């Protein structure tokens, strides 16, 4: 039995509530002989207010020792924008080299979609997680004056692009449709765009069984709405992937269902699993938060750690629950209902 030593970062707002449900389902699905050990980390707005710390080095060192991390949500209106995002969430993704930000989208039965005809949506976005415009490479001159100049320079390395593109080809190869779409904007962002396209084509020669396609990001947003069934695996830059996956969530039952994994495929560092949604301070404490995205993130966590049957059980339980889910239900009730299904 491969026991699981899990770090838990509930974080802010509804993060606390949804993580509790994720852990409930995780405990329920694991076989008796797999021991689950968890350690909670107090990180987020509260900690910052109390100590001024976002992610101290000592905590980073401790986190490194776990098999994986389950994170709820980070962010609070009482903290200046960017402090926790950069100082905690992005710091974790960068420090643990989470270069594959995996974001599956599936239109489950009985869930709301603004799209007509309930298209058969089942794709996964492989969002690059450690480079692009997220690196903080830039600056501002004459800040706050009418002559201010600000730059935000996107970093793209052949090393970084090739490894994420290769991971996406591997994922595409393992899926029935074997199709991979590169999304970029190489008609305008010519330098980074050509690096991505060249490596996409070059690596693609090693995967003759995978059908490839290229779309500019603006055109991709149209197809997300008019023909999302065309997508199987999508590989894209950090910022394009951020935007596209919110759109993907919006057309597949909403942000309450969107799961993600920040994956370090080499296993050098723990991977981190989190719902795509934020801390939703407006509904925190009301019991209205939907824990499904966190529970589906737990499925990704199980799959990553090699517990494939358990991962599938969680996904099937979510699908069955959604098919029969009553309109008004609390966070806790949803967690209970899914936990009962995975255990039964
Ligand atoms: C996400 C979030 C983060 C991102 C923010 C909170 C830094 O929007 O996980 O998609 O931009 O990656
Ligand atoms: Mn986002």
Shape: globular
Instruction: Count structural domains.
Output: 2
How does the major sheet shape up? 10 strands, mixed
Q: How many beta strands in the DSSP annotation?
A: 12
Please give the CATH class of the largest domain: Alpha Beta
CATH topology description of the largest domain = Isopropylmalate Dehydrogenase
Beta-strand content bin: 15-25%
What is the rounded distance between the termini?
21 Å
* Topology pattern, helix = H, strand = E: EHEHHEHEEEEHEHEHEHEEHHH
As a percent range, the share of helical residues equals 40-55%
Key descriptive features of the protein:
single chain; 344 residues; alpha/beta; Isopropylmalate Dehydrogenase; 2 domains; two-stranded antiparallel sheet; 12 strands; globular; binds 3-isopropylmalic acid; binds manganese (II) ion
């Amino acid at each position: 039995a491969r026991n699981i030593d899990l770090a838990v970062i509930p974080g802010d707002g509804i993060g606390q509530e949804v993580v509790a449900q994720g852990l409930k389902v995780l405990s329920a699905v694991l076989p008796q002989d797999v021991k689950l050990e968890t350690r909670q980390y107090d990180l987020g707005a509260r900690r910052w207010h109390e100590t001024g710390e976002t992610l101290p080095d000592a905590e980073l060192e401790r986190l490194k020792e776990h098999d994986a991390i389950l994170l709820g949500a980070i962010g609070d209106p009482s903290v200046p924008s960017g402090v926790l995002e950069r100082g905690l969430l992005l710091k974790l993704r960068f420090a643990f080299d989470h270069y594959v930000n995996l974001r599956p989208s599936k239109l489950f039965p009985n869930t709301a979609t603004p799209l007509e005809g309930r298209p058969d949506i089942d794709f996964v976005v492989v969002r690059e997680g450690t480079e692009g415009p997220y690196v903080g490479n830039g600056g501002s001159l004459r800040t706050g004056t009418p002559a201010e100049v600000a730059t935000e320079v996107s970093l793209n390395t052949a090393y970084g692009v090739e490894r994420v593109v290769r991971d996406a080809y591997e994922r595409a190869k393992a899926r029935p449709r074997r199709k991979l779409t590169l999304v970029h904007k190489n008609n305008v962002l010519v330098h980074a765009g050509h690096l991505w396209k060249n490596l996409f084509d070059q690596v693609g020669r090693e995967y003759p069984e995978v059908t490839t396609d290229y779309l500019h990001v603006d055109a991709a947003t149209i197809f997300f709405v008019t023909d999302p069934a065309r997508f199987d695996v999508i590989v894209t830059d950090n910022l394009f992937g951020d935007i596209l996956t919110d759109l993907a969530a919006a057309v597949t039952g909403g942000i309450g269902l969107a799961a993600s994994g920040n994956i370090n495929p080499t296993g050098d560092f723990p991977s981190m699993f989190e719902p795509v949604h934020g801390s939703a301070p407006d509904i925190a404490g009301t019991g209205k938060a939907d824990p499904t995205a966190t529970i589906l993130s737990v499925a990704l966590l199980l799959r990553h750690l090699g517990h494939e049957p358990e991962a599938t059980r969680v996904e099937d339980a979510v699908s069955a629950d959604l098919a029969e889910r009553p309109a008004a239900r609390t966070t806790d009730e949803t967690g209970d209902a899914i936990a009962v299904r995975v255990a039964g």
